[in-house]
Design brief:
alpha+beta, DUF493 family protein, UPF0250_YbeD-like
Length: 94
């Protein structure tokens, strides 16, 4: 992970720590190329967590957005999940 990415996650941890009481519901938003395997990879990352996952395809069908609402234990657990899914090819975290 490069320095810029590390700094981003550090700021995110601090912001989450200052703005929320933990554990709390957290809304993840991702965009992936429309490929059933990629969508499934993201969904599998949140498997057995009680996540509510909503998917929407873009107008052209080229991309799929995923909104994932899940109870997270701490800012650190939120960041760890972002890092876990960042390995999926073509994923964009919003």
């Amino acid at each position: 992970m490069d320095k810029k990415t590390q700094e981003f996650y550090t700021r995110l941890r601090e912001e989450l720590n200052n703005t929320s009481t933990w554990p709390t519901e957290y809304l993840y938003k991702f965009i992936v190329p429309t490929d059933p395997k990629k969508v499934e990879e993201v969904e599998n990352a949140f498997d057995n967590m009680g996540a509510v996952i909503q998917t929407t395809q873009s107008k052209t069908g080229k991309y799929t957005s995923l909104s994932i609402n899940v109870l997270m234990e701490s800012p650190e657990s939120v960041v760890e999940k972002y890092i876990e899914v960042s390995n999926i090819e073509g994923i964009i975290s919003l």
